[in-house]
Amino acid sequence: MHKSHGMGYEEYSRSHVNRLEVEKRREEQHQKSKQIVSNLPMIG
């Protein structure tokens, strides 16, 4: 978690604001990944 989000689990779990920021970044990364995959050519 620290490498991905710049904070440890303890800090993440203590702060509601930190949790919201991390979850927002995770959602953005997920949407970006979905967009990349949808642009790949279909095989088969």
TrEMBL record:
The lineage of its organism: Bacteria, Bacillati, Bacillota, Bacilli, Bacillales. It comes from the Bacteria. This is Uncharacterized protein. Residues 22-31 have a biased composition (Basic and acidic residues). Residues 22-44 are annotated as: Disordered. InterPro entries: YuzK.
